[in-house]
Amino acid sequence: MSVQAPSPKAAPSGSGISRAIDAVFNPRSIAVLGVTRSPGTVPYDIFHNILTTSYTGVLYPVAPGKRSIDSVRAYRYLTDIEDDVDLAVIVFPANVCERALEHCAKKGVKAVIIISAGFREVGPEGLRREQRIKDICDANGIAMIGPNCLGVINTDPAMSLNASFARKMPAQGRIAFLSQSGALCTAVLDYALGKGIGFSKFVSFGNKAGLTEMDLLEYLRGDDQTDMILLYLEELRNGRKLIEVAQRITRGPGAKPILAIKSGRTPQGASAAASHTGSLAGEDAICEAVFREAGIIRVTSIEELFNSAIMLTYQPLPKGDSLAIVTNAGGPGVMATDAAVGSGLTIAPFAPETTAKLSAALPAAANIKNPVDVIGDARSDRYIAAMEAVLADAAVDQMLVILTPQSMTDIEGIARGVCEVHAHATKPIACSFMGACDVVGGIDILQAANIPHYILPEWACRAMADVQRVIKWRSQPAEEPQQTPADQAAAAAIIDPAPAGYLREDQALAVLKAYEFPVPAYKLCRSADEAVEFADSIGYPVVLRIVSPQIVHKFDVKGVALNLESAQAVRDAHRDMMNSVHAAVPDATIEGVIARQMVPAGHEIILGAKQDAVFGPTLMFGLGGLFVETFKDVTFALAPIGPASAMRMVKDVKAHSLLEGARGTEPADIEAICQCLLRLSRLVTDFPRIAELDINPLLVWPAGQGGAVADVRIKINGETQPK
Amino acid sequence: MSVQAPSPKAAPSGSGISRAIDAVFNPRSIAVLGVTRSPGTVPYDIFHNILTTSYTGVLYPVAPGKRSIDSVRAYRYLTDIEDDVDLAVIVFPANVCERALEHCAKKGVKAVIIISAGFREVGPEGLRREQRIKDICDANGIAMIGPNCLGVINTDPAMSLNASFARKMPAQGRIAFLSQSGALCTAVLDYALGKGIGFSKFVSFGNKAGLTEMDLLEYLRGDDQTDMILLYLEELRNGRKLIEVAQRITRGPGAKPILAIKSGRTPQGASAAASHTGSLAGEDAICEAVFREAGIIRVTSIEELFNSAIMLTYQPLPKGDSLAIVTNAGGPGVMATDAAVGSGLTIAPFAPETTAKLSAALPAAANIKNPVDVIGDARSDRYIAAMEAVLADAAVDQMLVILTPQSMTDIEGIARGVCEVHAHATKPIACSFMGACDVVGGIDILQAANIPHYILPEWACRAMADVQRVIKWRSQPAEEPQQTPADQAAAAAIIDPAPAGYLREDQALAVLKAYEFPVPAYKLCRSADEAVEFADSIGYPVVLRIVSPQIVHKFDVKGVALNLESAQAVRDAHRDMMNSVHAAVPDATIEGVIARQMVPAGHEIILGAKQDAVFGPTLMFGLGGLFVETFKDVTFALAPIGPASAMRMVKDVKAHSLLEGARGTEPADIEAICQCLLRLSRLVTDFPRIAELDINPLLVWPAGQGGAVADVRIKINGETQPK
Questions:
Q1: CB B181 within 8 A of CB A329
Q2: Could you tell me which CATH number the domain at A603-716 has?
Q3: The pTM is what?
Q4: DSSP string covering B627-681, please?
Q5: Angle formed by the axes of helices B528-538 and B567-584, to 10°?
Q6: A529 Cβ partners below 8 Å, 6+ apart?
Q7: Which residues make beta-bridge pairs with A201?
Q8: Which CATH architecture has domain B14-310?
Q9: Reading across the β-sheet that carries B542-547, which strands appear in turn?
């Protein structure tokens, strides 16, 4: 077998790489390269982990100069092994990895896990090194995990593989965990062990030079051991791809929820992330948009990640968002109510028969409204009666059971009571036995029965609210990007030959016109006469706007004249404008003025787009002026979008009510805004050279009356299009 | 000794009640009334708790028909006890408590704890019952805790008192805990036990019919066992009093931080609270204002309460808000950076010498910028070097140490390393050893050395941010309410005789004028002639506004005419207005029109005030229109206020930047706004009959140019003032 020369075009086909990924998780044989005999060194620890956690395949240590490691016969070179080797684990120093990979290629290894650090995260030289190993893998169809990672775990008893230097093998479970940070995995494993949470697959993918989160997500989509996926990301490199892959997983029959932490939320965090794994974290608001479109539930902490995961894994999905609370203490009931409502859940109103049942079963001092207070001396019989009554109520979609350890509280008895009710319940149940010592016995009973338990009722509510996000996503129909009509050639004729920088205003307007934006009649006029002639042809009033590459802020130099009612007014305005512009910017090259229809006032909308280095073309929507600047009240989406996404962008700003006719105004033409967003989506998707585009404002009139582009700027990036 | 007849005027003097409160915490003798021999009953459990937790005074069971309880001689009646009894604990059914209290009064008992429920929380009859027992206590100078509570704990070894039915006595500590919910206390005690947190005093004050949170706070101010106070409240009954008491505790020499949870944040939560302890929860935004003025740090969960408490108790206050992070894992470092910045902390930039030290001590792959990553194979020597280096940096105010349990991580060794550094550190340190199993040994070592530990770095950051709130509060100078000049008699002449309902517009303007608000010249005119005469005297342009008790929304019936430039315009407008108003509201009684100076446009400000049933006179500030309605961007304060509070109200709205000259506008006259807030503060404090007052808008001009009241409505409440 010979090593193929690296070639960027030799990337393996989809099915090939998918077979190769399978060798990461289900290898029939593994070689660990460079194993020593010293516990506490990574190669030994990994070898030892595989050996001692009942891996069902064959394990080969490669250890030049050693006859055996832990009684297992050792090999001098990988190529000395007589058997096929599916998976190789490499922990050599970064500069030796390339050689090792060449050996792997020669041996026909299907997959490698590169634990070693010292690649892209250490700067340009590391990045080059990373590219070289990636090229070898690509050229030889080797699936690579890493570099700079902790390794891979597959708890499937048919494999029982811990190819990582984690301290412990987690329990088997139906949750897969993918992490960009290796060290975080060690904390997560320890944390999960404490909570009794099991995993199906556990992957630290590090620098993701070979297999990325997309490949792994795609693999897990078909993994019958996995019901849901948790993801820790420090950067996104391809938002559009993530949306495609995640949508396939999170929607439709056999959908699996994906929960994710994306760190680097703040600019400081993003800069720390960059120095850590060499990530280029994108703007957080755009990440948010990506996750929303992808159907990925973004959470903010490991606590929330697991809290929501156990609710999704262990309990059925509820029908709706209404909650019943059963508690033996009023205070926590009040706090839980606050938390539930604050998280977007509703407090179920009980039917009269429920109230009657509660009234019959509970003492007079109890509260039989929701939250139900069975009061401090309640034992399991009273809890059971209350739980059965509220679960039977059609208005109740899910239940939270709260217990405080009062002196008469039979904690374990009540826990068993919850288990009894849970055994035949069809609605989700969560518990909060509050405390840390006396309640432990009860919590153990609940967890053994897979009833989600949360130390604080607030966390239970938050987890239930995340479940609602999953339900909402699934109920949202999938949509295709919409191709609005456009004269693409006309736009290309302007954009393709344009140099880097801003398009002239008439060109920018022409581009929008080609994409059928509502652009008022306009003309670039070289003289006052020409402007008057044009104004006469379209009718008054008109607007004049100066056109000069040196003048960006036209208003500041009196380069805009509004509401000109007559030919004379146009002439006067033209003269005054030339004078004031010359006075303000003596060196400006004046290319003329844009004469334009004066359009009626309306809601001021801002539509923006930019080519993001990480995410590609992105769209922004906001209400004019104050809302954008003071409240950052804007929404983002990745282009291209469809009609439902456009509507979501409009509806998700806080100031949205203003467009629906708040404060006595007429409702705005929201349909016209959505149409413009769809046109913008197509425009920036068709022309990657559009670096930035701002329509500010788009004036929008009452419903059915449309709107008009009042100002636009389009910035073209450096490389001109090949002819 | 004879029982004094209850009389509302016989409330004990301050020093008397303070001596009586001391009998709650430091009784020389205690009687528990109605003790049985059955474990699991509240009277027995309380008796047993006192007996078995080494109470240093004398304990007397009162148990008719029993010779002894747990070998302690029992008494038939309280009055049979030969000794003085300082404290009585009462657990009788609600309807027997009154009798029991009469016995206490006869015996000269100084303080009582009434555990029993069945009072205000069960409705009007319970409230009456509660009033009767309160009257007996007041008349006899008895300090009462409860009813409807868990009891009281004093861990001072000189007393060692657990007069509660909590399952366990907490450890001694320097934190006092006061709770309106008794059952919550049981959860908190169990939780604290798990975290190794001790308490000085622990009080469940229930319905607070006798001693309220104010009395207890005041007592704890002088308690040398207590360094900080935690408070759980479901309702506030007197916001102004709480501000006074809390300010004395949280400021000045010997200041003690107060952290509080106030539940019933949401309307649904408030309604659950009302059904629970009969609370009337006030508007949450006003609570927020009360806590801010009181210097009470409001937190949102029990987790945050303790997280912040241990930071405040165990660590010195930092000099500023800058944080250094030392971690052995990049991912958690990024997440902590996000959390720190998100909580308002800053990430310290390191001095060159710090970077040099880090560079010398750490391997090449380490990150020597903040967050410092000592990387996965770090042992305690590397951690210690990094910690010493960053703590020595003058730009670092506090440090967070993060550990993930990687295979080579010597968890306990590193914990001991942190302890070494902590032993001579002068800056606050917190740790996050992430996980739940392997890290436990390390966490125990840290907690034993009083180094705050948090499972998640996010929580550490939140706790440190709460510490910043304490520092900010202390740096804020105390201020006296400001008495703005006012002609109180002139206002009284209008308000005192007014019937319930809205003042006529000219009267409302006259009230504002008496308090020296900037009210433009105006007159109530009965005819067009009168209006013209007045307009001639003040000069044009003027405004006419209809005056009719039936017409609230003047604009809707064309009852406002703006910008009238001449006598003829005034006459025309007057005629048109009469016609349109008659057409729109044929039955309206027209009392005339207000003729008024037309004032220039300006920033539109809303100033509001209302008499709140719970908080008394409250003030509101917001920017006109959209900001108030769409974004709820308003601030509240309790009247009376001083200049600093007025400025805070203005600066705390999000849209504040608009007043400072954002978007090319001139800065507004903020001083004029503050002056109006101070005038409003005095006005509503002087006249409790002002139920609601809205100045909407106050037009405010550029700095130095003042502003003008453009519209005002004042609603007077039902009871007319006694002459």
A1: yes
A2: 3.30.470.20
A3: 0.85
A4: HHHHH--EEEEESS--HHHHHHHHHTSGGGGGGGTGGGPPPB-HHHHHHHHHHHH
A5: 140
A6: none
A7: A154
A8: 3-Layer(aba) Sandwich (3.40)
A9: B522-525, B592-597, B542-547, B560-564
A191 vs B331, B434, B655: nearest CB: B434
> Exposed (0-12), middle (13-18) or buried (19+): which is A377, by Cβ within 10 Å?
middle
Of B332, B309, B335, the residue nearest B435 (C-alpha)? B332
3-state secondary structure of B522: strand
pLDDT along chain A (723 residues), means of 10: 44 56 96 90 92 94 92 94 96 91 96 92 89 95 94 96 90 95 88 89 94 95 96 87 93 93 75 55 76 92 91 95 95 91 94 97 91 92 97 98 91 97 97 93 94 94 96 88 92 95 94 96 95 95 92 85 94 94 90 92 90 85 74 85 92 84 78 96 95 92 93 84 45
* Helix, strand, coil % in chain A, rounded to nearest 5: 40, 20, 40
The residue type found at B152 is V
Between A and B, how many CB-CB pairs are < 8 A? 290
Which chain B residue has its CA at the smallest distance from A303's CA? B456
Which among B438, B631, B663 has the least Cβ separation from residue A625? B663
Would the CB atoms of B338 and A265 count as touching at under 8 Å?
yes
Superfamily per CATH, domain B521-597: ATP-grasp fold, A domain (3.30.1490.20)
Fold agreement (A319-475, A521-597): no
DSSP-derived secondary structure letter, A702:
B
C-alpha to C-alpha distance for A622 and A697, rounded to whole angstroms: 10
DSSP bridge partners of B540: none
Locate the domains of chain B by residue range.
14-310, 321-474, 521-597, 603-716
Contacts of residue B516, defined as CB under 8 A and 6 or more positions apart, other chains included, come to: B484, B485, B486, B679
Of A194, A330, A365, the CB nearest to B118: A365
Q: What are phi and psi of A649, to 5 degrees?
A: -60, -40
CA-closest candidate to residue B258, choices B240, B283, B232, B276: B232
**Rounded to a whole number, what is the distance in Å from the CA of A405 to chain B's nearest CA?**
6
How far does B270 lie from chain A, in Å, by closest CA? 7
**CB burial string A341-373: b at 16+ within 10 A, e below:** bbbebebbebeeebbebbeebbeebbbbebbbb
- How far is B13 from chain A, CA to nearest CA, in Å? 33
A117, closest residue in chain B (CA to CA): B365
Contact list, B331 vs chain A (CB under 8 Å):
179-184, 232, 234, 263, 276
CATH of domain A319-475: 3.40.50.261
- Amino acid found at B218: E
Which CATH number does B321-474 carry?
Answer: 3.40.50.261
A362: closest CA of chain B, how far (Å)? 15
User: For A302, which residue in chain B has the nearest alpha carbon?
Assistant: B456
CA closest to A372 among chain B residues: B272
